[in-house]
Amino acid sequence: MTNQPGRWLGAAESALRAAPPTALLSTAHALLAHHVDARSVTVLLADYGLAVLQPVTRLPHTGASVPVHGAHPAGRAFSTQAAVMEVTAEPGMVTVHLPVTVRGDRLGVLSVHLPEPAAGTPGILELAAFATAVGHELLVAERDTDLYLQTRRRKRLTLAAEMQWQLLPGRGFEGAEYALGAHLEPAYAIGGDNFDWTLTDDHLTLTVSDGKGQGIQAALLTNLTVSALRNARRAGVSLADQACLADQAIYGEYAGAQYSATLLLRFELATGRVRAVDAGSPRLYRRRRDTVERLELDTQAPLGMFEETEYHEEPFHLERGDRLVVVSRGVHSARSRTKAGVFGEDALRETIAATGGSTTHETARAVVEALMQYHGSHDLPHDAAVVCLDWRGRTG
């Protein structure tokens, strides 16, 4: 480590910002070699299914992937969102695995092989801050190169899935008042399910859409739905009017032949008051202390089903510590190839209750994993979207 801990970080962040989009890894290696005597540096990115971490290398050649869930220290760093120090066979050397996360969106892990930091030094905290800086630059670099998007792929995405992933805001988001985590399956063939969110100083708006159909047609429908909702939202209209305008846009294109079941939620950050428009099938569950219940909203017509539908908002209130879980029809109405009935209320309640101590990300993943076990396969026949929100509330 340098003799003046922490003073190199500002210059290192500037160097990362100045690096060409495809040179983030080599730049990070050069910086860490100079400032902390790092011998090797690896960036591993989470794949679309959040099952493995894949190293950034010179494509098309890729290194071996690392499982997210298991004993591997890089996987543990990603799952726990905490630095993990791995003792190596080389005397005096360790490999530090640090989560690369930006505002709650988990991107991957930065692994640094370096001399073991001396006791009492703030070296790990500095490396963690450097890993976050790498994450910010990765998100910027993705606008100009396909390198990092390609690294995340264990296999080829369908065209519909390509369209859907480009539409998403991320897979997690975190603020002082809340934490969000989301999961989509089948990750490499998703078609119609989608989620979106946006933040102001006073409000968080969250939407979950379940477009009718599969494949390209479902992706086109959902793209229109999300774009119409964003357009209305950015015009500053109410939540109900956002639903009305999106409804008109979809009906104008499909005349009722295609429609999008959508749940719209608007959270008042200062108070925990929520306004909701339930336009279709996504279902909302709340875990309050030890009780899991479905919040029964007034189910209105899906967006685009009828011409000039009028929508109304419903209020409810969140308390600190509440957890909300939104699931699409592909979850709550899923059928097994070998079992009678549907996945259903009981299985959802049990899974949500069992994940009370887990993060929002792990809760969303656990719901999908339970669905896969019920279905008997990882190849789900229908899209499944799960969004989990933990409400902390505003202090002061």
Rounded to the nearest angstrom, the distance between the terminal CA atoms is 40 Å
pLDDT averaged residue by residue: 91
Class from helix and strand fractions: alpha+beta
Principal-axes shape call: globular
Main sheet record:
6 strands, antiparallel
Order of helical and strand elements: HHEEEHEEEHHHEEEEHHEEEEEEHHHE
Low-confidence stretches: none
Q: What is the overall number of helices? A: 11
Strand order of the largest sheet: 3-2-1-6-5-4
Enzyme class: hydrolase
Pfam family, one: SpoIIE
Keywords: Hydrolase
Protein name: PP2C family protein-serine/threonine phosphatase
Layout of helices and strands:
Layout: H1 9-18, H2 24-36, E1 40-46, E2 52-55, E3 66-67, H3 73-80, E4 84-87, E5 93-102, E6 105-115, H4 123-141, H5 147-151, H6 159-167, E7 172-174, E8 178-185, E9 193-199, E10 203-211, H7 215-234, H8 239-254, E11 260-268, E12 273-279, E13 283-288, E14 291-294, E15 314-317, E16 323-327, H9 329-332, H10 344-354, H11 360-375, E17 384-391
Antiparallel strand pairs: 1-2, 1-6, 2-3, 4-5, 5-6, 7-8, 8-17, 9-10, 10-11, 11-12, 12-15, 13-14, 13-16, 16-17
Helix pairs in contact: 1-4, 6-7, 7-8, 10-11
Summary keywords:
single chain; 396 residues; alpha+beta; 6-stranded antiparallel beta sheet; globular; PPM-type-like_dom_sf; protein serine/threonine phosphatase activity; EC 3.1.3.16; PPM-type_phosphatase-like_dom
